[in-house]
Amino acid sequence: MPRCGSAAVQRHSQGETSRHVGSRADDQTSSISSPVLQQLLALQRPANQDEVSQILSAELCSWRGNPRLATVVLNGLARHRLPCMARQLLTFMLGSHVETNTFHYNMAISACGKAGQWQLALSLLGSMLDTSAAPDTISYSAAISACEKGRQWQLALCLLSSMPARRVSRNEISFSASISACGKGGQWQQALNLLSSMSDIRIIPNVICYNAAISACEKGGQWQLALCLLSSMPDMKVAADEISYNAAVSACEKSGQWQMALSLLSSMPGVSARPDEISHNAAITACEKAGQWCQAMHLVSSMSASRILPNEVTYNSAISACKRVARWQLALSLLSSMPVMRLVRNEVTYSVVISACEKGGQWQLALSFLSSMPHIRIARDEISCNAAISACEKGGQWEHAL
C-alpha cells in the first residue's frame, strides 16, 4: 500500500454535526414531555404561521419563564426534518418577546441541514446577526453541513473562511463538513488542501475528517491518494474504521484495482475494522468489472460464513460477474436463491440475468425472463429489451427479435 506524509482529510457524516447540536438539548430536557410538539407534527404540511402560532400561544407564559422548554420542540422538529416549521417557531418566539438564544437557532439550522434546506440555513444564520443570539462554532458547522448536503461546496468554503473574521473558532466538525462538501462537489484537491491546512491552525483531524477526504478521493477517481490517506492515519494516531476502509475499497473498485480491493478487505479484521456488506459489495463489483467471477462468487460465499447478510446489490453484482463470462447457469442459480435470502429481484437483476442468457446463447430463456417481468410487476427497460433482442439475433430468431 502506498504511503504519503501529507495530512489527510475527512468525510463528514451528517449525523456528526447534529449529534453535537442536539446532545445538549437531550441532556437538558430529556425528562420534559412536549405535547405541543405532537400537535405541531399533526398539522397538515405545509403549515402556515397562524396555525403554528395558535398552537404555541398556549405555551407563551411557560416559555417566557423558561425558554429552554422551546428547545424540546425545536429538537423534535429537527429530528423530523421540519426546518420551515422550526423557522415559524422562531418567528413566533421573536414576535412574542420570548428569549431566543444561540442554541435555539442552532437547532433550527440543524433541521435545515437534515432536510437539505441550505438556503434556509444561511438565512437563519444571517438573521442571528440581527438578534442577541450570536452565531457560534455549532451554528456555522450546522450551516456548512446544510450546504454540504445541498452540494454547495463553494458556499461551505465561504462559511468556513468567514469564521475567523466573526471571531468564531473552527474545529474538526466545521472542517469535516467542508471537506465532505468538496468531495460531493468533485473537488478532491480542495478537500485535501483543507485537511492539510488543519495542522497549520492546530486542529487535529479526526477519523471523520480522514473518511471525508478518502471519500473525496474515491469520488474523484484518485485511488492511490485514497490509499495514501488510509496508510497515513496510524502515523497521525487516528484509528481507521469501517467507513475508512469502505471508502478506500470503493476507490479501488472504481479504478479497476480489484487485487488491491481484495487486499484491503482481507486486512480489515487485523485493524479492528469489521467488514460489512458495503465493503464486500465494493470488492465484488471490483471483481465483476475485472471478469474475476470466481473471486466474486467466493466473496458471496464468505459473507455467509462471516454472518454478513448479502443484499440486492451483492447478488446483482455477482450475477453481473457471471454474465461477463457467459456463466448463465450460475447466474440463474443466484437468481433463484434470492427469494430464499428474502431479497427482492428488481429491474437490474433481470437485466443482468437476460444479458447472461444472451451471452450464453440461451435466447429462449432470455425471452422467457423478459415476458415474465410484467407479471411480477417489474418494468422492462431498454437494457433488458436490447439484451433479449440481441439473444434472438445471435440465435437466428429474427422473427422473435422483431
UniProtKB/TrEMBL annotation:
Here the segments flagged for biased composition (Basic and acidic residues) are: 13-27
> Would you tell me the protein name for this molecule?
Pentatricopeptide repeat-containing protein, chloroplastic
Gene3D superfamilies named among the record's database cross-references: Tetratricopeptide repeat domain
Q: Where are the PPR repeats?
A: 101-135, 171-205, 206-240, 241-275, 276-310, 311-345, 346-380
Could you tell me which NCBIfam families the record lists for this protein?
PPR
Could you say which residues form the signal peptide? none
Q: Does the keyword Kinase apply?
A: no
Q: Where is this region: Disordered?
A: 1-31
Q: Which organism is it from?
A: Polarella glacialis (Dinoflagellate)
Do the record's keywords include Repeat? yes
Assigned keywords, A-Z = Repeat
